[in-house]
Design goal:
The protein is an alpha+beta fold. It has helices at 12-19, 48-59, 92-107, 131-141, and strands at 2-9, 28-30, 37-46, 66-76, 83-88, 120-126, 145-151, 153-162, 165-175. Strands 2-6-5-4-7 form a 5-stranded antiparallel beta sheet. Strands 3-1-8-9 form a 4-stranded antiparallel beta sheet, covered by helices on one side. It is globular and about 45 Å long.
Length: 178
Amino acid sequence: MLRLFTAVEIPDTLRTRLTFLQGGVPGAKWQPVENLHLTLRFIGEVDEPTAADIDQMLSGLQAKAFDLSLRGVGEFGGRDPHALWVGVAANPALLRLVAKIESALQRMGLPAETRKYAPHVTLARLRDAPIVKVRDFLAANAAFDSGPFPVREFSLFSSFQTPRGSLYRAEQSYPLDA
């Protein structure tokens, strides 16, 4: 079985900038630089023939290239935060790409994603992080803005669990139309 998701890879220089945000929150397990990405659609565990069908379906997907900006920070979990993230500036082209991927996966029989898409780049997973430190992090980094970067492709990733955390590997990339 393969655990799959689609994502936009973040340019190396921007991933390095994101690592400069990582710190100051006890209980945070910061994502390694190589794991920073923008998930488009989590697929989950599938067998190899289904993975091949997914690859074939995504290979035929037509979508336009676009520019994207990361902007602001946030947390998931409210009073008991469990993740810190960098947000994405509103982008209709990104949402169209996500919708096309979702439609393609449903056409091949995969179950629909039930959660509303909230584009973000996860910076850290939290365990027992002091809420005051989380709020300090959010306040200190609220103005983060990456500026635009080009998105000319998206990728199908596999995810492997290890004792040190998840490892992600790009299995295939799919170009977007210029």
